[in-house]
Specification:
Blueprint (H helix, E strand, L loop, with lengths): L1 E4 L5 H15 L10 H15 L1 E7 L2 E9 L2 E7 L8 H12 L4 E6 L3 H9 L3 E6 L9 E6 L6
Parallel strand pairs: 4-5
Antiparallel strand pairs: 1-2, 2-3, 3-4, 5-7, 6-7
């Protein structure tokens, strides 16, 4: 597996990974409120042109993606058939190396698997809401800071 920057031509592949990951995570996370076409357009028009997008590549195919904007990890999704193999952790490690001053992210409170990965990589829960997101589901913010700045 190789971790590399996403290509502008990969919007379809990345949207498919994002959608499959979200669909496989129901009922632990709420279903997406966006259609497949809306997600594809969002990757083409918003995510890839304006964000730092990383993929885990397995034999030329993205099996995971991570979207980083400044200190925020906006998206981190792994292909359902590739979960539990350390891919999400490898992407987090890449993000920490690239943003050594600190990182933040949001996840659904019910997403216990992802929360365990974040916590194993030194992220600490800081804020919870009752659902200030598109899905209106309870969520939690995590923060990672270098040891001297916690």
């Amino acid at each position: 597996m190789e971790i590399r920057r996403a290509l502008a031509t990969e919007a379809g592949s990345l949207a498919a990974v994002w959608l499959r990951s979200r669909e496989a995570s129901v009922p632990w996370v709420p279903p997406t409120v966006r259609s497949h076409e809306e997600v594809l357009r969002w990757f083409e028009d918003v995510v890839l042109p304006s964000s730092d997008v990383w993929v885990a590549d397995h034999h030329g195919e993205p099996v995971a993606l991570m979207v980083v904007d400044d200190e925020w990890i906006r998206q981190l999704y792994v292909e359902p058939t590739s979960t539990g193999k350390g891919i999400g952790g490898a992407l987090l490690t890449r993000a920490v190396r690239r943003r050594p001053e600190g990182l933040r992210l949001w996840t659904f409170q019910s997403n216990r698997g992802s929360r365990r990965v974040y916590e194993a990589h030194g992220f600490v829960a800081t804020i919870s809401t009752a659902g200030d997101n598109d899905e209106h589901a309870p969520d939690v913010s995590y923060e990672w800071r270098p040891a001297g700045r916690r």
